[in-house]
Each structure stands twice: as C-alpha cells, then as structure tokens.
Amino acid sequence: MKALLLIDIQNGFCPGGNLAVPDGDKVVPVANRLIASGRYDLIVASQDWHPEGHGSFASAHPGKQPFELHELSGKPQMMWPDHCVQGTRDAELHPELRVPEIDVIFQKGEKHHVDSYSAFRDNDQDAITGLADYLREQGVTELDLCGLATDYCVKFSALDALEMLPGVKLRFIEDASRGITPDGVAAAIKEMRESGIDIVTSEQLIGG
C-alpha cells in the first residue's frame, strides 16, 4: 500500500501568501503529476489551520517581530507572520492543486499555545492529528512525502513518520518541495538522509 503525503501546499506558503516560501508554487505541478501518476493507493494532505491570534504569531507578542526567536509555553519558538488563519484564503490549499483527488486532509496547529510543524502531531509531541493511526489502519507500507516547507513542516513530518510508523518505507521527494532558506533546506535533507529516509525526485518515482 503506497501513500503520498502532501504537506501544507497552501496559499499562505506560496507567492502572495502571508508566509510565502520562495518558489512555493513550483511544487504544485510536480505534486499534480504525482497525484495523477497512478503510483499511489492513497493520497493524504496536511493543512496548517491556525486560530486568530495563535501563539506562534509575532502579532500576539507585543514588541516582537516576525522571524525573531522568542518562546511559547516556555519553549523556544520562531515568531511568524499571521498565516493560514482558519477560514481565510491564506489557509486554503493552492487552487491549482488537484484537491478533489486527495482522499483525506488532516488539519494542524489549532491549539493557541503550541505550534505544529509536523503533519502528525504538535511540537510538544502531545496532541496528535490522527494521521499516523489512519495510515496504519489503511495498511500503508510505503510513504512518499513532499510539500512546504522542507526545512520546517516537511522535515518534522518525515522525522515523526520515522518514529510513529515503524517499518514503513519513507521517501522525501526533493523537487516537489521548497524551503525557506538554502542552508535550512540542506540541513534538513542531511538530517532526513542520516535518519534513514530516502531522498528522491519525482522523475525517479514516476518518470519524466
């Protein structure tokens, strides 16, 4: 059972969004080719889904600026621009993504006091989204993942999948992902590779 996990391919992380990843929209056609390839038995997605005034927003902390390191619930926390607020266009999946062919969407980041990079659980590793249980129930044996952003939500999702889905073959699809900084992307790929996650391209999986 092969599954594709599309991580946070949302307006907010694409050009024009509130927390745009450089060239974030370039992942959409690659993701669409993967969806249409027939390779996958199951296609799932995650969606950042923050309440207004979320604790990771710089605007919720007087005097703090976006991309400044602060803390949230006693732990270090990057301060972000307000993004992917529930019910806004910023939070919607990219309009050109083949959304009707996604089997299920898991929302994350809904608690005010904790951020959620991973598609599987919050950063405090307490609250889970239900994604791991769902994939186990479906009998998934191989999981390919990609999306936005490589150095945050994609990396943390991959590492959580490694821990929460023992025995499942994991692949990170590099050309179907983009990150915030080149150094961050390089470090994330290195960490994933060293953890035993295969680094692949869409062409390797489905051809040109």
TrEMBL record:
Known pathway: Cofactor biosynthesis; nicotinate biosynthesis; nicotinate from nicotinamide: step 1/1
Alphabetized InterPro entries for the sequence: Isochorismatase-like_dom (IPR000868), Isochorismatase-like_sf (IPR036380), Isochorismatase_Nicotinamidase (IPR052347)
Protein name as catalogued: Nicotinamidase
SUPFAM superfamilies, sorted: Isochorismatase-like hydrolases
Pfam families recorded: Isochorismatase
EC numbers on record: 3.5.1.19
Annotated organism of origin: Rhizobium metallidurans
Keywords: Hydrolase, Metal-binding, Pyridine nucleotide biosynthesis
Listed Gene3D superfamilies: Isochorismatase-like
